[in-house]
Design goal:
Elements (H helix, E strand, L loop, with lengths): L8 H15 L11 H7 L5 H12 L10 E7 L1 H4 L11 E7 L7 E7 L15 E4 L2 H4 L9 E5 L6 H20 L6 E10 L5 E10 L2 H8 L1 E3 L12 H14 L12 E6 L4 E5 L36 H13 L1 H10 L5 H17 L5 H6 L9
Parallel strand pairs: 1-6
Antiparallel strand pairs: 1-2, 2-3, 3-4, 4-5, 5-7, 6-7, 8-9, 9-10
Helix pairs in contact: 1-2, 3-7, 6-10
Length: about 375
């Protein structure tokens, strides 16, 4: 495998020099495109501070267990679900409480977020960003959290609720394959109208770990580096991620455009890609999901490998991790109690197709011979 994954010394020096000059010119406010390089130019904490931050992030109570939380979220959901502006900064007051215990209410600010699921024709309920004050969550399951994504049920029916459970599984799968992965936690959420006190619905939702904590656990920083290519990334992580996306048939991802990817950059300038948001994958098979016509596939269920082209030996070496974890991967579907039994069977069969196509007797035909060389995805 080619040696890549770290920026060249000259490139790093140039970026750092540009960032330092920008930081030294207070009269000229840094433009947004310079922001990631300014972040990289910041001094790194000492080793002990990095170690403590990693320990704290790893021990967040929200992700200490896998059993679904029982929560009540009270807010003006009529107003929130009308806010369909992408990257909206509007925030709406609300409270979280454990189960129905109002005495445990935690004040929060809520906002809409997302892209395709913000479209009212797609989802009646918007995905949420939940903002906490650390003093309010001390000693609770949200201890240490300041901002979290909450994946909601999209539409208020059983089928769409099932898709939250379906999307939860890929997060767990990737966590088995890579230590640098977003953690997720299911919650059964009762959504209560703040004005009337009426429970509007009770549905499964899913909290996604904040990227800052993923970075702390990786000893890195989350940096949105534009126009990233395969050669800029850690080869092992890139191959693992690319094969995982092929496994679940997810093409709704772009490293170059930073779409559904976060980049974790270490002090040594090693860059790890970390995927998220899997509702457009074939494994989840959301009813609104469709592939990009440019890819030449008819359905999101069709697999297409879009990662770097490597030798048969390199593919086989990384795939060995997938084979070693197969029993655990298949067992995940039984660990989600309310996941539809028919889907569990269907999902296992779908993943068996991946394992069959990538075994040693088919690997060259599946991944090597037909691989389309490209600098990025």
């Amino acid at each position: 495998m080619v040696n890549r994954g770290k920026w060249g010394a000259a490139a790093v020096a140039g970026l750092m020099a540009t960032a330092v000059l920008a930081a030294q010119e207070p009269a000229r406010k840094a433009k947004a495109p310079n922001a990631p390089y300014l972040k990289l130019a910041e001094a790194w904490p000492d080793a002990e501070t990095m170690r403590q931050r990693k320990i704290e992030a790893e021990k967040r109570p929200l992700f200490a267990g896998d059993e679904p939380l029982a929560l009540t979220l009270k807010a003006d959901f009529k107003a929130i679900n009308k806010d369909r502006t992408e990257n909206s900064t509007r925030r709406y007051p609300g409270t979280f409480s454990m189960g129905g215990d109002s005495s445990s209410a935690i004040p929060v600010d809520l906002g809409s977020r997302g892209h395709s699921r913000l479209n009212a024709r797609t989802c009646g309920w918007v995905p949420l960003r939940v903002v906490f004050k650390k003093k309010d969550v001390a000693g609770t399951v949200f201890d240490g959290q300041s901002s979290l994504k909450l994946v909601t049920h999209c539409r208020d029916n059983d089928d769409f609720e099932q898709h939250v459970l379906r999307e939860y599984v890929p997060y767990r799968i990737y966590g088995l394959l890579s230590p640098i992965a977003f953690r997720a936690r299911l919650a059964k959420v009762a959504y209560v109208d703040a004005a009337s006190g009426k429970t509007l619905t009770t549905r499964y939702g899913m909290f996604i770990e904040d990227d800052s904590d993923v970075a702390r656990r990786a000893g890195a920083r989350s940096v949105d580096l534009p126009r990233t290519q395969f050669k800029d990334l850690d080869p092992e992580s890139l191959m693992t991620m690319s094969l995982f996306e092929y496994m679940i048939a997810n093409t709704d991802v772009s490293i170059f455009k930073l779409h559904n990817i976060k980049l974790m950059v270490t002090e040594q300038h090693t860059t790890y890609p970390v995927p998220y948001d899997f509702d457009y994958s074939g494994l989840v098979d959301a009813p609104y999901a469709s592939p990009n016509p440019k890819l030449g596939i008819a359905s999101v269920r069709d697999r297409i490998y879009r990662g770097p082209c490597e030798s048969e030996a390199d593919f086989d070496r990384v795939l060995e991790k997938f084979r070693a974890k197969k029993a655990e991967v298949m067992g995940l579907f039984d660990s989600v109690a309310d996941l539809n039994a028919g889907y569990r069977k269907q999902a296992r069969s779908y993943l068996e197709g991946f394992y069959s196509a990538t075994d040693r007797s088919h690997l060259r035909k599946t991944l090597v011979d037909g691989c389309v060389r490209a600098p990025a995805m």
